[in-house]
Specification:
- The complex is a heterodimer.
- Chain A contains no helices and nine strands.
- Chain A is mainly β.
- In chain A, strands 1, 3, 4, 7, 8 and 9 form a six-stranded mixed sheet that branches. A three-stranded antiparallel sheet of chain A has the order 2-6-5, with no helix packed on it.
- Chain B contains no helices and ten strands.
- Chain B has a six-stranded mixed sheet with strand order 2-10-9-4-5-6, with no helix packed on it. A four-stranded antiparallel sheet of chain B has the order 1-3-8-7, with no helix packed on it.
- In chain B, 44% of the residues are buried.
- Classes of the chains: A mainly beta, B mainly beta.
- At the A-B interface, strand 3, strand 7 and strand 8 of A face strand 5 of B.
């Protein structure tokens, strides 16, 4: 069971906005450790989507954005496209475990 | 361009050993921390271990401590994962991923490049 909790699934129609939450605790997100997000398309390796809570690598379109507040972080995707169908994972550091944590993952379905 | 290529996966019996390799190219390997992350079939991502740019620091997930060992050879631009006393719980695709450059905490930053993964199946 992940210490970072994500909804198992979310869905949206093309063009809509969806958000994916990542809820942690005082030993990880709440302790001001950065949150990072990854996209994993079916049958492929994960790809970095957001780093340092809200920063996008050069290869990521600005439809993707990240934010953090308190013990939670959020990934937002606007202008939803069919190719956004994937699993999304959040990641942070946990001081109690002294290790890296991944959320359980969220499957995004584009209706 | 940055490239990470894992190898060494396969089918192995419980209790046996296996060594995975990750060949890096397209960047100065010796300047970066490196991670192993695994994904059991149909499951999410699980961080396994990280090694600092020079190999002086190593950190492990509790689930693998004492059985899996991360190492690197900077002269060969290669990362390794020695896996001993394997159990069926170790069945997964193993990815290597690039961590932060030297001078930054190995555990705090994102993994900006990933390999394609190598499948390890532990079965009798």
């Amino acid at each position: 069971q992940s210490v970072l909790t994500q909804p198992p699934s979310v869905s949206g129609a093309p063009g809509q906005r969806v958000t994916i939450s990542c809820t942690g605790s005082s030993s990880n997100i709440g302790a001001r450790y950065d949150v990072h997000w990854y996209q994993q398309l079916p049958g492929t390796a994960p790809k970095l989507l957001i780093y340092g809570n809200s920063n996008r690598p050069s290869w990521v379109p600005d439809r993707f954005s990240g934010s953090k507040s308190g013990t939670s972080a959020t990934l937002a995707i606007t202008g939803l496209q069919a190719e956004d169908e994937a699993n999304y994972y959040c990641q942070s550091y946990d001081s109690s475990l002294s290790g890296v944590l991944f959320g359980g993952g969220t499957e995004l379905t584009v209706l | 361009q940055v490239q990470l290529v894992e190898s060494g996966g396969g089918v192995v019996q419980p209790g046996r050993s296996l060594r995975l390799s990750c060949a890096a190219s397209g960047f100065t390997f010796s300047n970066y921390a490196m991670h192993w992350v695994r994904q059991a079939p149909g499951k999410g991502l699980e961080w396994v271990a990280v090694i600092s740019y020079d190999g002086s620091n190593k950190y492990y997930a509790d689930s693998v401590k004492g059985r899996l060992t991360i190492s690197r050879d900077n002269s060969k631009n290669t990362l390794y994962l020695q896996m001993n006393s394997l159990t069926t719980e170790d069945t997964a695709v193993y990815y290597c991923a690039r961590g932060p450059p030297m001078g930054f905490g190995e555990l705090l930053y994102s993994f900006d490049y990933w390999g394609q993964g190598t499948l390890v199946t532990v079965s009798s």
